[in-house]
Amino acid sequence: MLLIRRFEERTEEQYTRARIGGYCHLAIGEEAANVGSIDPMEPGDYVLASYRDHGTALAVGSEPHRVMAELFGKATGVAGGYGGSMHLLDVERHFLGGWGIVGGQLPIAVGVALALDYESKPNAVLCQLGEGATNIGAFHESLNLAAIWNLPIVFQVINNRYGMGTSVEMASAEPEQWKRAAAYRMHGERVDGNDLLAVREAADRLLRRARDERRPALLETTTYRFRGHSVADAGKVYRAPEEVAEAKKHDPIDRFVAQMGIDAETVARLRSEVNAEIDAAIRQAAADPAPDPAGLYDNVYGDANWREQFSRMERGGPFGEREGTRAWRA
Amino acid sequence: MAGVTYREALRRALDEELARDDKVFLMGEEIGRFEGSYKVTAGLYAKYGPRRVRETPIAEEGFVGAGVGAAMLGLRPVVEIMTINFILVAMDMVVNHAAKVRQMFGGKVGVPLVIRTPAGAGAQLTAQHSQSLEVMFAHTPGLKVVAPSTPLDAYGLLKSAIRDDDPVLFVENLVLYNVNGALPEPGDDFTVPIGRAQVVREGRDLTIVAHSYTVRRALTVADRLSQHDIEVEVVDLRSLRPLDAETVIESVKKTSRALVAEEGWATYGVGAELAARISRECFDDLDAPVERVGGAEAPMPYSKPLELAALTLEDKIEKAARGLLADCGLLAEA
User: Fold this and answer.
1) Are A54 and A20 in contact (CB under 8 A)?
2) Is the same domain home to B132 and B238?
3) Is A311 among the domain residues?
4) In a domain, A310, yes or no
5) Side-chain half-sphere of B231: how many Cα atoms within 13 Å?
6) With contacts defined as CB-CB under 8 Å, which chain B residues touch A311?
7) What domain count does chain B have?
8) Mutation site for A-interface testing, chosen from B29, B108, B250 by largest number of A Cβ within 10 Å
9) Are residues B142 and B204 in the same domain?
10) Do B162 and B206 sit in the same domain of this protein?
């Protein structure tokens, strides 16, 4: 959690220094929801996330340097600089992506669970989403498919109370997201998403149930984002200062420290280690090479025959990249 | 080489690929016990069971997305969309997701997914069930789009699409399902490569380029014009993305005249794309501007006379061809 917190604070700073472009959504305040659900994952389980995915990447164990390099658009980034903040992934650690369209990862996560079931793998999928995604059609289609097909998947609604600037009460006829599972005869429950131990207990139990009994579930983890929707949003016009201040009293890191009785010295030492690790990650990412523009088309397709397939599409093409004179001028 | 229908050719390709590779499975509405809205999957549920032939509820966005996810784990889903019109509710999964995955994730993961769906019109199915929307997908990098016109190509291209490691939209045609043609003997492992057009009739005076059912109409027009000593070359594109511009350009260099016919709307269509390429590559060879013809640019009406007026029928293609030939002095009058 400390690592995610520090990484995000430095990410915000690096964004203001224009080392990071595009959209950038921070997970500050939501660390327990990320760590608590990912910690009980077993080898062979998969996780998918929304575009607020830095915390997910760090929680699965992706190297901070490679995550920061992706944010910097470097060739050494987790997606080679092709994805950026919203499209982190780590195939080796079974993190199948941050996805940029709200709720788009839900049907795909259902497909990942379907593949596990198809191949009789004893594993499960954790699908993270924000509460803003629960009003799209794909949410309902995905829960329905998971339920009728008995797929091993846990939908984790990370309810930070605002979809951009729209509150959950304004957006959802049923603001208690966990109740929505009932429409699909699916188990739903809500835990305090700022309580790492509570999230971990629930996620562990529901992932086990998904693995062992092939029963999907919806886990709502209530939390709060301390920052705006993205770094471009101060997060102030739609939230009262008192509300933000109150939420910060429930900081998941402070809470865990108190719960576990971790002494101040240990916390200070851990903070200092994390700070040094992120410092090094930033330094290394800044020094890393940018991707070569010659590779622009290398990953649009991946079939072994794709270049051969497209070889006859060049003539008369619109790419504006062709060398040589125009034949008709001759 | 026994004659079979286009429908049977597809069914046989699915059957053989299911038998060949356990990672291949079918998914779609009514494809199991109902045997498919157009019966393409007849008998496959009985033969392979619910694991390999997965029936879905009416939830195109959900099950196309599930196909993307399953493909990311290395399975080879073949998803049926009952008609191409319904793919619009899954557009986000096709264009924003399937097409983007490989590049967006730096080449770390791909999507070997096939989406089969019939386009086409002519059975009074009206505005919401008569569209040919394949150019929307052919416009999109990351996707491949094929649209065969014969049972043989349907069989061979479907096998290639299933074995391909990228997402392929496989466009069938409602009117083609009952068309007959030859297939290779079982066991030949015959495939048709993606991205290759075919000259299906040779000629010297005019090239007509088409895909899917319109190829058959173009061949009829070629027959009619041959009675006036006009020899039409017909190019069947077979693939729309990758587009085999090479075969089209070589043909037009030979004939000096080009007409592109399509069932969909011509504006921003296949003809628009080819006209740009032909004008660039064949500028000195052309005897006339490239002509194009497509469906009426109005929502498809119901009443038969109205529908006939809206379709890209043989008469409409012939009229365009005759006008072009008359302009060039090859016919006395259009």
Assistant:
1) no
2) no
3) no
4) no
5) 9
6) 195
7) 2
8) B108
9) no
10) no
Q: Tokens standing for A20?
A: 């990071």
Among B24, B29, B61, B247, the residue to mutate for chain A (most A Cβ within 10 A): B61
Spell out the per-residue pLDDT of chain B, length 334, in tens. Answer: 558 999 999 999 999 999 999 999 999 999 999 999 999 999 999 999 999 999 999 999 999 999 999 999 999 999 999 999 999 999 999 999 999 999 999 999 999 999 999 999 999 999 999 999 999 999 999 999 999 999 999 999 999 999 999 999 999 999 999 999 999 988 789 999 999 999 999 999 999 999 999 999 999 999 999 999 999 999 999 999 999 999 999 999 999 999 999 999 999 999 999 999 999 999 999 999 999 999 999 999 999 999 999 999 999 999 999 999 999 999 987 7
Inter-chain touch A111–B67, beta carbons under 8 Å: yes
**Of B129, B139, B231, B281, which is the active-site residue?**
B129
**How far does B145 lie from chain A, in Å, by closest CA?**
12
Instruction: Report the domain count for chain A.
Output: 1
Q: What is the CATH number of the domain that holds B112?
A: 3.40.50.970
Q: Which residues from chain B sit within 8 angstroms of residue A107, using beta carbons?
A: 61-66, 68-69, 93
Residue B64 lies in a domain: yes
The ipTM estimated for the assembled molecules is 0.95
User: Looking at B16, B17, B29, B60, which residue is catalytic?
Assistant: B60
Domain check: are B216 and B173 in the same one?
Answer: no
Tell whether A317 lies on the interface with B, counting CB pairs under 8 A: yes
Give the helix/strand (H/E) hosting B210: strand B206-210
In B, which residues are within 8 Å of A120 by CB distance? none
- Provide the residue range defining the domain that includes A160: 2-293
Chain B residue numbers with beta carbons less than 8 Å from the beta carbon of A145 are 56-57, 59, 62-63, 66
Size of interface A-B (CB pairs under 8 A): 192
Whether residue B129 lies in the annotated active site: yes
CA distance B304 to chain A (A): 36
Chain B residues with beta carbon closer than 8 angstroms to that of A111:
65-73, 77
* B273 and B307 fall within a common domain: yes
Secondary structure (H, E, C), chain A: CHHHHHHHHHHHHHHHCCCCCCCCCCCCCCHHHHHHHHCCCCCCCEEEECCCCHHHHHHHCCCHHHHHHHHCCCCCCCCCCCCCHHHCCEHHHCEEEECCCCCCHHHHHHHHHHHHHHCCCCCCEEEEEEHHHHHCHHHHHHHHHHHHCCCCEEEEEEECCEECCEEHHHHCCCCCHHHHHHHHCCEEEEEECCCHHHHHHHHHHHHHHHHHHCCCEEEEEECCCCCCCCCCCCCCCCCCHHHHHHHHCCCHHHHHHHHHCCCHHHHHHHHHHHHHHHHHHHHHHHHCCCCCHHHCCCCCCCCCCHHHHHHHHCCCCCCCCCCCCCHHHC
- Cβ <8 Å between A299 and B284: no
Residues B19 and B103 grouped into a single domain: yes
**pTM to 2 decimals?**
0.96
Is A36 within the bounds of a domain? yes
- One domain for residues B177 and B298: no
The rounded Cα B215 to chain-centroid distance in angstroms is: 10
For residue A252, the domain's CATH number is: 3.40.50.970
Domain end: B156, B182, B208, which one? Answer: B182
